[in-house]
Amino acid sequence: MAKIYVFRHGQTTYNLKHRFCGWIDADLTESGIEEAKKIGEKLKNERVTRAYCSDQIRSKHTLELVLNGYHKDVPVFEDPRIKERDYGDLTGKNKDEVEKENPGQYKLWHRSYDVPPPNGESIKDVEKRVMKFLNELIPTIKKDDVIFISAHGNSLRPIRKHFEGLSNEEMSTFEHERGHIYCYNIKV
């Protein structure tokens, strides 16, 4: 049976300052580096056959630290379809300040399924591109494949929805712990 391990990147300076990061290419903090190393430690005995990350530095850096010498010669693929949600005009802004200035809109922009922030993507938009990635990946999985995916808070949503059978509301509202690993068994 094949396995897919999915995890969120480690903490960034934008996470630390409670800012919308989106498509800004923020790297990991020292805590984020430690979080990624802990994921690597937990997965060190897996016989990974390939790995995926987005084209954003926090996802790439997390995957690099997870693989960190435990998994040599693993093919790594960058795919922009699993990058973070584009927060549009909210990018870089403090979430608490946005909520205070736009109390009625904040929840819709932040966690509704199909309402995007101004000039940004809705979770539904993110789901469309992530599902293109998954629909391309799943048919290529072979028996005994072990696949790592270093994702983002919002690209994790549709992945979890797909494998866990979540509703749009469930997918849109839950939070992801950094350092948590989601494991899915795939029958081939």
Structure description:
With 188 residues, the chain is α/β, with parallel strands linked by helices. It has one domain: 3-Layer(aba) Sandwich (Rossmann fold). It has 8 helices and 5 strands, in the order E-H-H-E-H-E-H-H-H-E-H-H-E. It has a 5-stranded mixed β-sheet. The longest helix is centred in the last third of the chain and has 15 residues, at 123-137. The mean pLDDT is 96.
Which helices and strands, and how do they pair?
Layout: E1 2-8, H1 13-16, H2 30-43, E2 50-53, H3 57-67, E3 76-78, H4 95-101, H5 103-111, H6 123-137, E4 146-151, H7 153-164, H8 168-173, E5 181-186
Parallel strand pairs: 1-4, 2-3, 2-4
Antiparallel strand pairs: 1-5
Low-confidence stretches: none
Strand portion, in percent?
A: 5-15%
- In total, the number of domains comes to 1
Span of the ends, CA to CA: 7 Å
What is the CATH superfamily?
Answer: Phosphoglycerate mutase-like
- Helix-strand sequence: EHHEHEHHHEHHE
Task: List the quaternary state of the chains.
Answer: single chain
**What is the total tally of β strands?**
5
Instruction: Determine Rg (CA atoms, Å).
Output: 16 Å
Main CATH class: Alpha Beta
Estimate the global geometry from the Cα principal axes. Answer: globular
The main sheet orders its strands as 3-2-4-1-5
Query: Strand count, sense and closure of the main sheet?
Result: 5 strands, mixed
Helical amount: 40-55%
Q: Quick recap of the structure?
A:
Helix 2 packs across helix 3 and helix 6 crosses helix 7. The model has no long low-confidence stretch (mean pLDDT 96). By secondary structure, the chain is an alpha/beta fold.
